[in-house]
Structure formats: C-alpha cells, structure tokens
Amino acid sequence: MALIVKKFGGTSVSTKERRQQVLDKIISEKKAGNDVVVVVSAMGRRGDPYATDTFLDMLTDVSARPAARTKDLLAACGETISACLVAEDLRANGYAAVPVTGLQAGIRTDSKFTNGIVLDVDVSYLREVMSRGAVAVVTGFQGYNEKMDLVTLGRGGSDITAIALGGALEADGVEIYTDVPGIAFTDPKLVPSAPFLNSINFSPMYILAMTGAKVVHPRAVDTAIKFNRPFWVRSTFNDEPGTLIGQKGEAPGGLYGISLMNDVLMASQAPGAEDVLEECSCNEWFYRRGEHGTAAILEPAKAEEMELDCEIKPVGVVTLQWDPESGITPALVDQALRSHGIRPEGHFAVPDGGAWAISPDKAKEALMALYRAPLRQD
Question: Which pTM was predicted?
C-alpha cells in the first residue's frame, strides 16, 4: 500500500463537473489500495463567488487597510469550503472522508501573516484519519502560529501545503494537479509548439519559477528542496503522466527551459545607491555590480518606492537554464540574439544559465529566437 498526496488547484474544483474529475482521480487511487491525503485550493479565481481574491475584495470594501490577521482568517474560507465539498462528495460516493484544517493537519508556521513560512508539521492526526481508511481532505494555503492564529502561506500556498505534508508523511508520491499537463519548456501561450518536459531538477525549476515561469510557485519548489520531496505536476483533466520535479530530465538543445518576465524595469547608473538596488531587485540574480556598472531588475511598485537619481527603463527579461555540459555560454546567447537584430540592454549572471534584459517590444521575439537557436556545442 502506498501513500499519495494529491493537490487540486482552484480551476480543478471550481465546478461540480470539474470536481467529478477530481473525485475520479481520488477514487482510482483508493481502488488501487492506497492511502490518500488530498489538498485543495479555493474554488475559481477573482470574481467567482468563493475565490480567495473575491473574499479579500469584500474586506477592502470595508477597510482600505484591513488587519493582516483578519485578512488571513477571511482568505482561508475558500479552502475550507472546497475541503467540505470534496469530502462530502467522496462520502456520497461511498468513500469515508474527513475535511481537515491546516491547524488539524499540524502545519505550524511563523507569524508572518499573508506570507507565512512552514516551520514544522505534526501529521499524527492525518495518520489517525488514514488508519480509519478515510481520505483526509486538507485545506491548502494555511497553517497556525504559536498563538494559534491562522496564518496563510502566500501565493502558491496550497502547493506548499501538499509538499510539506508529503515530506512529513514520507509519502510515496506528491502530485500537484492543475489545468495544464505539466511543465513546458517555455510558456506555451507564447510558443504553442513548446514541448512539455518529462522531468526537471529542483535547481533549474526554482530559477525558472523565480524568473517568470508561472505553473509552480518558487516557494513551493523551495519547500520541496527543504523536505527533499520530488513532486509531479499533472493535469486534472487528462491522464498524461505530467512532469516530475526533482529529477534531472531532458535538456532539448542543451536547455532545460526559457522563462520570460515582462513589465519590469532596469535601473542603472546610480552611484552610491548600490545597496538599495540590490535590496529591491526582483531576485538575488537580477542585480549586477562590476566593471560594467551597477544595474538591477525591479518591479514597477518597488521602483516607485525608491527616490534614486538613476536611469530607469522598461524591459523584458529572458532567462535560460542550460545543462553545464552542453557548451552553451553567455557569448553564444549574445551572438544568437544579435544575429536576429536584437541588442540586449543588459546581462545578469544566473547559475547554469543567464538572464538578458531586452527592450519590451523585442522580448517575445528574443524568446522565440533563443527557442529556435542551435546553441548547443557538442
């Protein structure tokens, strides 16, 4: 008998028809003789009746600056509704199931409301539920602090819940179900022909997630690294195998993947403000200080907070992750871009890869050029 943790996102539980597909996957696992812990997100997205952002919009109608503790308590309602519905659906189909809160699941966090960090997990109650043959349906996105306050885990929080529970339970598998069939080599909305990967290791996935890839939140990958817990990303709506994150996979053309971050700014030439630029950069790699000057990639909101005498320009950032044995170098990437008439605005070093700041009107063209370019040097 195996123990499987399955997480289902908001689109997967947003309608009765979609929840039936969720039930089919859970019941199939139970019929195989396995124990199952299910983690669910709130139903749908902003504007849908029970979506997290819909609840938070209601709160901001009352107060322009609601208390963070209150925001977390309200934000958690969506997952509670989903857990109750899925558990009761299972019971109606003849399978014992128990809705479980983050507190009951033993997910202890720090006290950073709206963006909590998981400190440890006590899974004794979940083991008790499974010992009775029942499916534990856990509210994603939430834990509790030392004062027993409810603390939400921020964006990607339900994925974090599933991976943390999988690690604490020493589960045989952790599966993140969403509305896409896995992790694509690059954004399939930009490149419809981009293949979906069979597997990708933690490090390139984390960097791609931090630099614009959207399917998996970087904090979820970081949690998987902390718990040393590989996990699958699969579609709720088909039976494709999906992508295994945490195991070295294929590198088409020597690349693990390409990400694009749009609507950001590059700040440069700010003497005496280097520390501020480093602190405000989008991530640890999007900051450069050296013989070519100081530069950083910033989100617009951060740039507005800064009062700096520096050059700021809008850019897109294309980030590549490559196999260290491929022979790909920043110089080859520069050459490929320039051969298409694209002159990068700046380059930032990234482990086993690189990031290039591109004029916004050329960013998608740059991604397409690098997607097609024969960069590998065998």
Answer: 0.90
Name residue 238's amino acid: N
Cα-based angle 264, 270, 273 (whole degrees, multiple of 5): 95
Decide: 346 and 286 in contact? Cβ < 8 Å: no
The model's pLDDT over 25-62, given as tens digits with 9 standing for 90+, comes to 999 999 999 999 999 999 988 888 888 889 889 988 99
